[in-house]
Design brief:
The structure is a homodimer of 224-residue chains. Chain A has 224 residues and is mainly alpha-helical. Chain A is built from 6 helices and no strands. Chains A, B: Keywords: Cytoplasm, Phosphate transport, Transport.
C-alpha cells in the first residue's frame, strides 16, 4: 500500500513540476509581452493558460483518486491536501499572467504603460522572473531554502507596488487616464503573482516539514 | 461509520453556514463603510476578518480529521474535498471585504470616491448585498436554485464593473488621481467578490448534485 502511495504520489509530483514550469513560462512571457509590447508573446500566454488549467484538473483528479483508493493518514494525508491547495495557487498565477497578457493585447500596438512607468515595471518583472525560476527549483527539488527565500523577498515587490501608486500621483506622471487604469490593474496583478508565490512557498515548506495538518498555513495573508 | 460521517459532516456544515453568515455581514458592512463613509463600519469589517479566517482553519481541520478517520469514498469524499475549496473561497470573500474597508479607513473622513461615482457604486453594492443574502440562503438550505441564480446574475456585476472604467474615462469624471486609483481597486475588489460568489455557487451545485469528483468545477473561470 505504502509503495503504491509513493508511486502514485510521484506521478502527482511530476504533474506539479510540470505545472510550475508552465506557470514560470507564463510569468516570463507575460513580462516580455508587457515590456515589448509584444503581441505574439501576449497571445502565447493567453493560449497557454488552458494547459495550466488542465494540469490542475489532472492533479485534483489524481489526489481524489489517491484519497479514495489509499485512504492516506498523517503525513501522507497532509501532503495530498496541501498539494490540492498548491495546485489551485499555481492555477491562479497562470490566470494573473493571462490578465497581464490580455491588457497588452487590448492596448496593442500601444503599450498599456507610459514611458515614465517603464523602469518601475522592468524592476517588478525582474523580480517576478526570479520568483518564476525559484518556483521551478523549489518544485523540482522540494527545496525549502529556495522557498524561504521567496517568502523573505516578497517585501521588495510590495515596495515596488507602492511605488507605482507614488509615480501615478506624482508630477512625473504624463500618462492618459486609460494608462492610469492599466497601471493600477497591472501592478495589482503582478503583486498578486508575488503573493501567490509566497503562498506556494509556504505550502512547500509545510509539505516538506512535518506539522499537524490543522496548522496548514493560510493560503494568503492579506490578499484576496 | 456512515452515521459518524454524517454527524461529523453536519458539524462541518454548521461551521460553513456560520462562515457564510460572517462573510455576508462583512459584505454588507463594507458596503455601508464605503457608501457612508463610515469609519466604525470599516473597523468592524477589518476586526471581524480574523473570525472568518479561524472558521476556515476549523473547517480545514475537521475535513482533514474526517479524511483520516473515516476514509470517505465516492460522494462523501467529493463533499469533503469540495467543502475544503468552498471554505477557501469564503475566506477570500472576507479578505476582499476587508480590502474595501481598509481603503475607506485610508481616505477617511473623505470618501475614497468622488460624488459622480456614487450612483454606480450604490448599484454595485446593492448587487453584492443580494449576493450576500443569497449565499446565506444557499448554505442554510443547500438550495441549488439560489445557487443557479447567483451564477446567472453575475453578468450584471461585470457590466457595472465595466461602467466604472467608462465613468473614469468620461468627461463626467472630476475625481482626483488618488480617487481614480481607489475607483479601479474598489471596483476590482467588488467584482472579485462577485466572482468568488459564483465559484461558491458552482461548488454548492456540484456538492448537491452527483458528479464524478474529477469533474470538480474550476474555482474561478477567468480571474485570479
Amino acid at each position: 500500500m505504502r509503495k503504491i502511495f509513493n508511486e502514485e504520489m510521484r506521478q502527482v509530483a511530476d504533474d506539479m513540476e510540470q505545472m510550475a514550469g508552465a506557470v514560470s513560462r507564463a510569468i516570463h512571457t507575460s513580462g516580455q509581452a508587457l515590456l515589448g509590447p509584444d503581441l505574439q508573446a501576449a497571445q502565447e500566454v493567453i493560449d497557454g493558460d488552458q494547459a495550466i488549467d488542465q494540469l490542475e484538473a489532472s492533479v485534483i483528479d489524481q489526489c481524489v483518486q489517491l484519497l479514495a483508493k489509499q485512504s492516506p493518514v498523517a503525513t501522507d494525508l497532509r501532503v495530498v491536501v496541501s498539494t490540492l491547495r498548491l495546485a489551485a495557487t499555481f492555477e491562479r498565477m497562470g490566470d494573473l499572467s493571462r490578465h497581464i497578457a490580455e491588457a497588452v493585447r487590448r492596448s496593442y500596438p500601444d503599450s498599456p504603460l507610459p514611458p515614465e512607468a517603464r523602469d518601475l515595471f522592468e524592476r517588478m518583472q525582474a523580480f517576478l522572473n526570479t520568483l518564476a525560476d525559484r518556483l521551478v527549483d523549489m518544485m523540482s527539488e522540494r527545496n525549502t531554502k529556495v522557498a524561504e527565500q521567496i517568502i523573505v523577498d516578497d517585501d521588495q515587490l510590495d515596495q515596488l507596488h507602492q511605488q507605482t501608486f507614488d509615480l501615478a500621483l506624482s508630477d512625473q506622471w504624463q500618462g492618459s487616464k486609460q494608462q492610469m487604469i492599466d497601471l493600477v490593474l497591472l501592478a495589482r496583478f503582478m503583486e498578486r503573482i508575488g503573493d501567490h508565490g509566497v503562498s506556494a512557498a509556504r505550502r512547500v515548506v509545510y509539505i516538506v516539514s512535518g506539522f499537524d495538518p490543522s496548522k496548514d498555513p493560510k493560503d494568503l495573508e492579506d490578499i484576496d
